Amino acid sequence: MGAFEAFYDLALAPAERLGLASLRRRLLKGATSQHVLEIGVGTGLGLRAYAPGQSVVGLDPRRPALRRARRRALRWHIPLRPLQGDAQALPFPDGTFGLVVSQLSLCTIPDPLQGLQEVHRVLRPGGVFIALEHVRFPLAPVAWLQGALTPLWKHLAGGCHLNRDAVALVKRAGFTLLGVERYLAGLLVVVRATRPPT
Ligand SMILES: C[S@@+](CC[C@H](N)C(=O)[O-])C[C@H]1O[C@@H](n2cnc3c(N)ncnc32)[C@H](O)[C@@H]1O
């Protein structure tokens, strides 16, 4: 039980040391909403993004991941409510949250557009969605390679797709973009978006 999660944390450790952890810590700068939903919270590596005082509902379909996230939250003093669930059918009424976060989850959610439309629904008008994602590379030959590798990769990596265009998906779900930052020549993006006030 939880072997995949142990492997995941081990596999990500070098990337976290080389800058991912620091990017996560800077992810929410200025986003001060106290009641946050994180979709695809996984083992909780992204919990380092939160400031003291923010309380987080961490949603993920995998119980072993949520157990790790809970232990991590206790260690890092983050008030976390782990919740088993599916981002494609969020168990919250419309307009529940002022801030929703995704870290490396849009690559794995089976229908990311459906997940984003759900995020849009549970955000308050004027609320903010922040995503840190790896995406399809801007250069065609690399993007082609990502597409070719994805069928095998998603079997090895828990459903992860290498070739999704998170920015386009966020726009298609009805959000207004506030900003896009690109890292590693465009392989990683931070997208900030809002549900426009009605
Ligand atoms: C690559 S991991 C990222 C975990 C964590 N956010 C991080 O940054 O390390 C992708 C996560 O998305 C979760 N996931 C897969 N399908 C999902 C769904 N339908 N709804 C919500 N999360 C999902 C997986 O269980 C996994 O924990």
Low-pLDDT segments: none
Mean pLDDT reading:
96
The structural domain count equals 1
The DSSP helix count reads 5
Main sheet specs: 7 strands, mixed
Strand content: 25-35%
Give the C-alpha Rg.
16 Å
Tell me the helix content: 25-40%
**Largest beta sheet: what is the strand line-up?**
3-2-1-4-5-7-6
CATH class: Alpha Beta
- CATH topology term: Rossmann fold
Q: Total number of β-strand segments? A: 7
The CATH homologous superfamily corresponds to Vaccinia Virus protein VP39
What can you see in these coordinates?
This protein has 198 residues and is α/β, with parallel strands linked by helices. The protein has a single domain, classed as 3-Layer(aba) Sandwich (Rossmann fold), CATH 3.40.50. 37% of the residues lie in helices and 25% in strands. The chain has 5 helices and 7 strands, in the order αββαββαβααββ. The chain has helices at residues 3-26, 63-76, 112-122, 140-156, 166-172; strands spanning 35-39, 55-60, 80-84, 97-103, 123-134, 176-183, 188-194. Strands 3-2-1-4-5-7-6 form a 7-stranded mixed β-sheet, with helices on both faces. Helix 3 links the parallel strand 4 and strand 5 (123-134). The protein is globular and about 40 Å long. The mean pLDDT is 96. The site of S-adenosylmethionine has 22 residues, from strand 2.
